[in-house]
Amino acid sequence: MIGVIGTAPAEGAVPTGTPGPHGGNMDCKRIGAGAVLYLPVAVEGALLAMGDLHAAMGDGEVVVCGVEIAGQVTVRVTVLKDCPLPTPFLVTERAFMTISSAPTLNDAAADATLRMRDFLFRRVGLEEHDAGMVLSIAGDVRVCQMVDPQVTCRMEVPLAVAQSCGYAFP
Fold first, then answer.
1. DSSP character for 162?
2. What is the domain range of residue 111?
3. How many Å apart are CA 84 and CA 122, to the nearest integer?
């Protein structure tokens, strides 16, 4: 998995060890082979950076590291104009996820959940109440990491939910 992957923020600089709306050190163990990660482009050229590879890591990365490894990463980068997804956003063969970083686990989990609910309501086409029910029944809030300057959580929803609504990811 790729622990650090992100683009440059709109203004200023951000250390690679800090996660945020740009991506960064999210340590989301779902960012691996075959996954599609959507990140914002806030500056010319995006300035995509990545590193911090792990052979394995548990959710939470509780002691600041997983099984760190050297390696090579092959990626395909596509620029999407007017992307309708709340970035950072991840799609795997089994689920789609909002990823959020904040000062506390409660804040990160709440933000990931609210952004997923809004996505299901505004983009996938569920009624707002139904979107909440889907998250309560089929959604999983997971801790990606809790050791960086901001902590990171993700809200995972089975891919079948979007498919059943006829939603296709860009």
1. H
2. 2-164
3. 9
Number of domains in the chain: 1
The token duo for 144 is: 């990606």
pLDDT at 161: 98
CB of 130 closer than 8 Å to CB of 161: no
- Alpha-carbon distance 19 to 14, whole Å? 9
| Residue 10 belongs to a domain | yes
Phi and psi, residue 138, nearest 5° = -120, -10
Domain annotation covers residue 84: yes
CATH of the domain at 104: 3.10.28.20
Q: Is residue 170 part of a domain?
A: no
List, for residues 15-29, the tens digit of each pLDDT value: 988 999 999 999 999
| Predicted TM-score (pTM) above 0.90 | yes
Closest CA to 19 of 86, 88, 76: 88
Assign 65 a pLDDT band (cuts: 50, 70, 90). confident
CA 3 to chain CA centroid, nearest Å: 11
